[in-house]
Amino acid sequence: xxxxxxxxxxxxxxxxxxxxxxxxxxxxxxxxxxxxxxxxxxxxxxxxxxxxxxxxxxxxxxxxxxxxxxxxxxxxxxxxxxxxxxxxxxxxxxxxxxxxxxxxxxxxxxxxxxxxxxxxxxxxxxxxxxxxxxxxxxxxxxxxxxxxxxxxxxxxxxxxxxxxxxxxxxxxxxxxxxxxxxxxxxxxxxxxxxxxxxxxxxxxxxxxxxxxxxxxxxxxxxxxxxxxxxxxxxxxxxxxxxxxxxxxxxxxxxxxxxxxxxxxxxxxxxxxxxxxxxxxxxxxxxxxxxxxxxxxxxxxxxxxxxxxxxxxxxxxxxxxxxxxxxxxxxxxxxxxxxxxxxxxxxxxxxxxxxxxxxxxxxxxxxxxxxxxxxxxxxxxxxxxxxxxxxxxxxxxxxxxxxxxxxxxxxxxxxxxxxxxxxxxxxxxxxxxxxxxxxxxxxxxxxxxxxxxxxxxxxxxxxxxxxxxxxxxxxxxxxxxxxxxxxxxxxxxxxxxxxxxxxx
Length: 503
Known about the structure:
The protein has helices at 2-19, 31-37, 51-66, 70-75, 83-103, 110-118, 131-142, 149-169, 177-184, 210-219, 247-269, 275-279, 310-321, 355-391, 396-401, 422-428, 466-493; strands spanning 43-44, 47-48, 124-125, 128-129, 190-198, 229-238, 285-293, 333-334, 338-348, 407-413, 443-445, 448-457. The chain has 3 domains: 2-171 and 483-493, no CATH class; 189-207 and 357-457, Roll (Chitinase A, domain 3); 229-348, Chitinase A, domain 3 (Roll), CATH 3.10.50. The chain has a 4-stranded antiparallel sheet. Strands 7-6-9-8 form a 4-stranded antiparallel sheet. A two-stranded antiparallel ribbon has the order 1-2. The two termini are 19 Å apart. The chain contains 17 helices and 12 strands. Strand 3 (124-125) and strand 4 form a beta hairpin. 49% of the residues lie in helices and 14% in strands. By secondary structure, it is of the alpha+beta class.
């Protein structure tokens, strides 16, 4: 049933994606349901999930977003930047939450659920529950999409379950005085002296012999491979050039493009094997070959795609590398003003690079390796000499000058301060473990390395008091406790999610 709907409503859903810009857009999105349901017999706790159950959980996710239950979404992984990953994580984690809540006897009462619904900002006016807003939400947002009040109540029941279970899981978290004091140092201003050891990133002057290159090629042939590339056909359905369309005219034109793209996909799904032949009768379709496409979206110069942006090429690469065999075609790829379909024509597998092909990257790698070895030796020698000079009573400035280096100073720098620069953060970080006058070990940095000597540490600013620091540490520990509980609970759930057949 889901595949039937997907096939016949693809064009409609693509246009809806352009039009739906209001806050409750999530309630009208069924694409994620298709993605989640595109599996055979997913199971949890040894029981198979039917498409009906999956449908219900996807609706629950969408409603949870619309109701602003962000703590529930965040703790169960529903806020990932990848929409598909967010949906999948949330659905499975929610099922785990419900199972574990039942095991622990956590069951919110009807009155608790009613109180939590009344407290939702979306149903309030001037801080009070507004029955009119509630009725409008049910009739205008839920009913048209097949939702009902029971699903709304279920979202709030899940939120209450999470709150009670989190309190149990996170109860062991605690913060000691020594721990709080140690963390508080990031808010204490420090004055310190430091020496930077600059690395020569160009590695100039370093020679690499032909014998070294040949030996490296022989030892690393298995890893010296060319990139796999793919040749594809790209059918693009785009708005006509010239005066930009606006309003209803633009919407109508996009609808026509979506309909044309959908008809092509339907023809390919029905047995047609040539994207070029299917699209030839469609005036709005433009067929272009693209050769030598890498997984990352890199291509050799191609006139037909000379103006394509890196984002557009990466989208085509993602579609092309998702296809498993030549002749296979992608679903519709949507951009702001066009639709595209990709058909895989040729796969050029990775192959071992010849010595001639591999020489430039090998030469560069060996030069960088030699430069790193030389820098490690020279900086280590200079650091040991500086450390010995300090032990003899010399200042860091004197010890650095003896090694043709310059000592600089940080004055009243707060390691975690908002105005502290990234470089100052890097240099001041080792001082958190130092006593006054102590020199840090040789630390690595983007420019090479450095060593820092703590001169003094001042009191923390009033903005960061002990209570605030303790609260932040405790919140972090609680989060880690919950993450670990969720991880082990998911393992116990024995979730299986077989992939759908390709082709």
